[in-house]
Amino acid sequence: MRGTTYKIFKYTLSDLLRSRWILGYALLFAAVSGGILYLGDQPTQAVVSVLNLVILVVPLVSLVLGLMYHYANRDFALLVLTQPVHRASVFRGQYLGLSLALALAYLVGAGVPFLLYAIGNPVDWAQVGLVLLAGTLVSLVFTALALYIGVAHDERVRALGLAIGIWFSLTMIYDSLLLLFIILAEAYPIDPWVIGLSMVNPVDLARVMVLLKLDTAALMGYTGAVFNKFLGSNLGLLLALLALLLWILVPAWRAQRVFSRRDF
Amino acid sequence: MFLRRWFFLIWLLVVPVWARTITVCSTCEVRTLRAAFQAAQDGDTIVVDGGHYAEGHLVLKKSVTLVGKNLPVIDGEGKVEILTVKANGVTIRGFEFRGAGVNFVEDQAAVKFVDAERCLVEKNRFIDNFFAIYLQRSRHCRIIDNYIVSNAENELYSGNGIHLWNSYDVDIEGNYVAHHRDGIYLEFVRDSRIVNNVSENQVRYGLHFMFSEKNVFRHNVFRHSGAGVAVMYSKHTLMVDNRFEYNWGGASYGLLLKDIDDSDIRRNVFFRNTVGIYADGSNRTSVYANDFVQNGYALRIFANSMGMIFMYNNFLGNTFDVTTNSTESYNSYLKNYWDKYQGYDLNKDGIGDVPYRPVSLFAMMAENYPQALVLLHSPLVQLMNQAERVFPVFTPKAIEDDQPMMFQILWSKSKPSPSDTAP
Known about the structure:
By secondary structure, chain A is mainly α. Chain A is built from 12 helices and no strands.
């Protein structure tokens, strides 16, 4: 069983690492973050810009590439399933291969420019490391979501539409609703709610995680006790990490269940 | 005439012979400071060789030089003021003063000068005192190379490291002050210089001016305090070449300006403060060639500040560059470098062709709804900021740098201009 997972994982990963899409994705990231670093001459500002890519581009690319790969390899998966193998391990192998390929592409694309820039320039590795970690986790979350959508839908157009809808809701609509809530409920003690609500959305989680290291000074300016407890210590970072892990495990587990039970 | 001149010269040579040296130590003839003070005459030197002296409250009324050898400790045992000096020309060098007692009626200090001239406090250690060095109605004094550390935890039970009241022409140089209420406090002080000090971890402010004028502070470091420096109700203060770092917290500032006029802030570095400069009712003050790096808010300028000029400053990696509480502004921003500037420079003169508006919509929003800070760097927020930059509705139009620099200003490599010298 373990052998199956590993074989499928190895095949998926090597297949994907040779794909032009993944290469293009890594190159795009390298070009953009390298450009920001060398043209902007401010590493902190570059971290913010890469963070923006992590928030907008990484979820979208993970969803779309994940779905594309899933549909392109559906026949392969069906062929494998005719063999005496455990369905869950086939799924796990595919998920691990796909998410690792996307995460690697992101890490290389975003990380290498910082490494090159670090030769001769001061770089705050805590900030850069956190952005790289956040992007990796976001890749894992949205690959899991992509596979969940993919295994549950036969029509790829519908699945793609759903994916883009989820992406837009999580990156834009969710935040505007949160902002609206803050403005409307300003007179009430909403601090715990605001923190709780920003912990629900994986994109916000990644953003807040980086924020805690990047903009500590500004965040400390607000004297709310709950905020300070959450933002002023490593507690916030830890909670955000745990919540992101949940966001990876729950969709992946759900997708695996659907994959194991459905009738192809 | 000739004879008189000779007589004067001979007199000069003879006088030092009259001045005696009294040595105090555990095996000497004189074993207490009190006895030494009694025996001494003006111009004498008292050398204290080691030992631990807890003699209650000492009062010195003679112009003597106190020299500590092998770091003698003078102890107030947490009860009393240790040494009160009421004479001119007193020097105190090489002692450790510890345990001046907390008192809510009187400001008890380790060393207090009252109505004194030409005092010198040099190379001493002050440990766990309520107030450490206290000058009251004194002038022409120098406080140099002292190490001053206390254990302050709240404002009520703590005093200031170096406290000047109603004094003038004082040099405070090369001291290290930590864990007091205010590191250095000046009230009704004029014509004084504060140079090369390090003041950190104060409960309240690193350096605090009240009702003072024509003072200079330069080359100091202020960090980890409630506010690095607070300048209040003061005029003509020159603030040059200082570092303000890591002043973090709910009400923390690098430099707090409250009702100050006609001052100069030049070539300082503000690094990682919650607020770089906070100006409330500050007029005709120029902020010139400073670096604001990675602060929460680089500038927080209230609308009751007028005639301030912000020029040739670098704004790098701050969360917010400028915030204010009004859509009006009577200050000018010119030729600063803003790292968030997105304009272009077609004629290549190094100055951006479109103005920069440093107050973002989200900054205004965070001012009113602080919880919204959670949404910092959200794509939504960036979209809102961009829209507002194109069509400003909510942000103050008056706050605008219409000649933003395209490149960082390297003032640190230029030579200081002549106007920076002490007044």
